[in-house]
């Protein structure tokens, strides 16, 4: 059973009825060949329109160590200096992305590997230096995305697969958070499709009790989220992802789902295993 296809109308846009799944996977899948193989088989089995966004931070770190490039972090965020931007461009945009494309082609999924620089799809701005200089890190304004090439790819049955890289329009590649890229693409494409943004991570969904994997909250609206947060029932590490989800919904995305990559197929239906945020 696919997402219920409801039609949305406005004076400026045609009716939106076709579902689109924008799916983000993290390093816990990319770094595990068995998990990645299973995920890509499930991803390929999804018949609806879809886009994949991936990370690859651990592979970049390990590759950097072999090249003598030491990764630097502040509060868990990578500092992207001159050497590091070259490293992540090679690893994210080359090694990781093209391996994914080859694996998807082997599964009969006609995919194309992209960065935000390709076709000027995701222009960004270098993060301004305040207390911390993050280097070549990009911040996105979703309203500036060029979504038309993606609409064209989808209409042709070609599956876009994005590395977490954007560009500043001045010739520089920018390292950009994959969650942010996924949310920004979801916002931009919600003008053309009925979008469900899916964040795959290592838990079954948002847990009401972090110590109990069976305490998944199946549906989460803003009222319930505020209540649970005030009662300090939610794991602090999940709060930024939920906040991003509600930001995306306020900007036009129909649904956001947070769940386990192993449940991907179910999480593209109305009988989802993860947490549906709306």
TrEMBL record:
It is found in: Cytoplasm. It is an enzyme of class 2 (transferase). Keywords: Amino-acid biosynthesis, Arginine biosynthesis, ATP-binding, Cytoplasm, Kinase, Nucleotide-binding, Transferase. Pathway: Amino-acid biosynthesis; L-arginine biosynthesis; N(2)-acetyl-L-ornithine from L-glutamate: step 2/4. Its main location: cytoplasm. It holds the Pfam family AA_kinase. Residues 20-259 form the Aspartate/glutamate/uridylate kinase domain. GO terms for biological process: L-arginine biosynthetic process via ornithine. InterPro entries: AceGlu_kinase-like_sf, AcgluKinase_fam, ArgB, Asp/Glu/Uridylate_kinase. One of its GO terms (cellular component) is cytoplasm. The record marks 24, 241 as: Transition state stabilizer. It catalyses: N-acetyl-L-glutamate + ATP = N-acetyl-L-glutamyl 5-phosphate + ADP. Substrate binds at residues 56-57, 78, 175. GO terms for molecular function: acetylglutamate kinase activity; ATP binding. Its EC number is 2.7.2.8. Belongs to the acetylglutamate kinase family. ArgB subfamily. PANTHER family: N-ACETYLGLUTAMATE SYNTHASE, N-ACETYLGLUTAMATE SYNTHASE, MITOCHONDRIAL. Catalyzes the ATP-dependent phosphorylation of N-acetyl-L-glutamate. HAMAP family: ArgB (MF_00082). This is Acetylglutamate kinase. The gene is argB.
């Amino acid at each position: 059973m696919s997402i219920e296809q409801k039609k949305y109308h406005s004076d400026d846009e045609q009716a939106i009825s076709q579902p689109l799944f924008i799916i983000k996977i993290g390093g816990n899948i990319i770094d595990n060949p068995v998990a990645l193989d299973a995920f890509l088989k499930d991803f390929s089995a999804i018949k609806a329109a879809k886009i994949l966004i991936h990370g690859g931070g651990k592979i970049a770190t390990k590759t950097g160590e072999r090249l003598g490039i030491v990764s630097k972090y502040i509060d868990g965020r990578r500092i992207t200096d001159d050497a590091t931007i070259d490293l992540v461009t090679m690893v994210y945009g080359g090694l990781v992305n093209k391996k994914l494309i080859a694996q998807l082609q082997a599964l009969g999924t006609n995919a194309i590997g992209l960065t935000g620089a390709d076709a000027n799809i995701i222009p960004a701005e270098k993060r301004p230096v305040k207390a911390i200089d993050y280097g070549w890190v990009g911040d996105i304004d979703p309203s500036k995305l060029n979504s038309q090439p993606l609409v064209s790819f989808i209409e042709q049955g070609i599956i876009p697969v994005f590395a977490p890289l954007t560009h500043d329009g001045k010739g520089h590649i920018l390292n950009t958070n994959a969650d942010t890229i996924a949310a920004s693409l979801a916002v931009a494409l919600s003008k053309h499709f009925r979008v469900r943004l899916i964040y795959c991570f290592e838990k079954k969904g948002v847990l009401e009790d972090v110590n109990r994997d069976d305490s998944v909250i199946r549906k989460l609206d803003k009222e319930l989220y505020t209540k649970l947060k005030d009662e300090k029932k939610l794991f602090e590490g999940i709060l930024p992802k939920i906040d991003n989800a509600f930001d995306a919904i306020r900007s036009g995305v129909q649904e956001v789902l947070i769940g386990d990559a192993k449940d991907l197929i179910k999480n593209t239906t109305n009988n989802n295993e993860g947490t549906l945020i709306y």
